[in-house]
Design goal:
It is a single chain. With about 100 residues, the chain is of the alpha+beta class. It is built from four helices and three strands; from the N terminus they run ααββααβ. It has a domain of about 55 residues. Helix 2 crosses helix 4.
Length: about 100
């Protein structure tokens, strides 16, 4: 008897209690993709998404200029991330320098 792995994997993830961690990792990856779409590769080496807590995405930036550029595009970034997940995952982005 064989089972399709697509049907087994979500159940196993939910049973193991790691679905929140997996979703958070997917959001961090999506943030990197969205930033790359907006700014090409110019900021990729100077910023890193760290974690999500209470719908706030925390991002480390090496310079205040990068943080300011991200701040100007914050609503667009949040909208694209939330749209890709089909729900409101992020409310705000917090910048650490």
């Amino acid at each position: 008897m064989y089972f399709d792995i697509k049907s087994l994997l979500p159940k196993s993830i939910k049973r193991a209690g790691i679905n929140k961690q997996i979703e958070a990792t997917q959001v961090l990856e999506m943030f990197n993709k969205v930033v790359k779409d907006f700014f090409n590769d110019e900021f990729q080496s100077e910023l890193r998404p760290l974690y999500i807590k209470n719908k706030i995405l925390t991002v480390a930036c090496l310079s205040s200029i990068i943080a300011q550029e991200l701040y100007f595009k914050e609503k667009d970034i949040i909208t694209r991330i939330n749209k890709s997940f089909g729900q409101e995952i992020i409310d705000k982005i917090r910048y650490l320098q």
